[in-house]
Amino acid sequence: MKNLIPLFTMLLFGLVMCSSLKAQDYKNMVAFRTGVSNGFMYKRLLPNETAFAGQLTFRDQGVTISGQRLFHQLAFPDKSYKWFLYYGYGAHFRYYTRYFHSNPFKPFRPQQKYEGNYFALGFGGMVGLEFRFLKYPFVISSDISPNFEFGGAYSFKVNLDMVSINLAYTF
Questions:
Q1: Can you give the CATH number for the domain in which 36 is found?
Q2: Contacts by 63-71, CB closer than 8 A, 24 or more apart
């Protein structure tokens, strides 16, 4: 993953230099996501401020492929036209090879590490805030996407810690 960050930075710089700068209401967005899980996101914004998004993220020596339906609206309509609130729902498929388990009733005991091949199907939501630069083709956003999974190492698992910060190029 450390090798992907310089590659992504060079790719982003190249896209900026090769494209013409334009005002936003973008149609497409490619984002680098970092946080609890790292990865990439592609979002297609439709004319009525709804969108479809697809994500490829990496966590626990595994990969997650997800798709969401998102809705955008102005976050502070009286103050600024650059801040947007987005929310939505979606589904994901996850494959991972390890997980850590801690006992909440024994908080000072070290976590136990389990390894294997695990597959999970999940559903969840997403709520975030994005800042659109009007003169440049960039978007900075942050979101939380709580979800629940069926299968995997557990029969049923709720993930509430899925927070990320995104840096995106729009076109």
A1: 2.40.160.20
A2: 63/94, 63/95, 63/96, 64/37, 64/39, 64/92, 64/93, 64/94, 64/95, 65/92, 65/93, 65/94, 66/90, 66/91, 66/92, 66/93, 67/91, 67/92, 68/126, 68/145, 70/43, 70/126
